[in-house]
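Subject: sequence -> structure tokens, single chain

Hey, anyone have a minute? Need the predicted structure for the following. Not urgent.
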Amino acid sequence: MTTVLEPATRHSGLDHRELRAAAVRVLLANWSGKGTVPSRSLYPHQWSWDSAFIAIGLRHLSPRRAQQELEWLLSAQWADGRVPHIAFNPEVPADAYFPSPDFWRSSRAGRHRGAPAHTETSGIVQPPVHALAAWLVHRADPRESARRGFLPRVAARLESWHRYLATHRDLGGGGLAAVLHPWEPGLDNSPCWDTPLGRVTPAPEDSYHRVDLDHSVAADRPTDLDYARYVRLARDYRDSGYDDGAPHAFQVEDPGFNALLIMSEHALAEILRTVGENPSPALARAERLTAALGERLWDPERRIFAPRELRDDRLLPVAGVSGLLPLAVPGLPRPLADALVSTARGERFRLGQVHMVPSYDLTDSQFDANRYWRGPSWFNTGWLVHRGLRACGHTAAADELREGILHDAWSSGFAEYVNPLTGDGRGIRDFSWTAALVLDLLADPREER
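Reply:
Had a minute. Here:
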């Protein structure tokens, strides 16, 4: 039975000034000199969507550092437009993380796709939160942004990134961006991927070493079988020369990934308008994406957006937190938004009754309260649902979720994620995006968001 929490118990006795000071300490400790690592232990490099969320929080501490966070990440962009999900720090030992630079071989295997020669990266991508982050960072201090020429420097890179997703990744031909690996939508081992992942032949276990288990308990991490399949997919993509048009065992249109792309297209339009360029292409893409999202990924039976597997061209019968993220899409039709709020409050997610927003359907047999993305509540998806609730006018629910996020961040030691039934912190502590999004939620809610 799902635990029902009393809000007064969850949110009492929280000193916001002390919380802010602690969040600042986490971000300062994880600053590498050029960007922010998610954690000093398990994640010692720069991750793509992590840095976007980190910049959103850093803007309240130092807009200049937030700008630098995004600039350094975008300097690792490939010539074809993709923003890789990891930019490796050459000063970190190669065996500190797997898959390592020697596995991805970006400067060699990705040479024909325009991988940079000066920085080793991964070859896959992560959700495109970057234009949204850049716009919010600019708005935090427009004068400093203008002085440094921040928007003119990032605008072309962001436009190229969005064009890459609109062209190279429209594998289904329906106008949505597809992902080629479970790591790309960010919800790595979600039960949403069990069916398409089940078709993948695992890599031999003696062909790699899992460094993640050196830093976190096995019960919190993906299984060995899932991890072997991740390695196989990444290896096959690398061996194709990172060719998006090659045959891929995993091809999925994810609602969360595309929702974030729509949000960032709207932000990019504002960026382009501000630098004196035509915003129409970004707005047109946003309009097409929003229409395609409803046409291709809405599941009327479950009243949630669901992933579409492209190999069979069918919606997967699942309910993950990525299906709630379109709440934050500007202009989402009101009936869909209302249905999503109803689903969030229903038995599958029990918004307001459990800690934050579970990453997977509480009623499903595959739900696991502790294992990575198979059920735990994450701070970044909670922040996105909060943003969507506020945008849709559900301010009371948004405020309650905000207080729950702040409380869970404090009580868990800025954990990577928490058990949604107990609030116990899981994974890594002193996690950067947890601290960064706390800073954002502590800011004046009247500020432009």
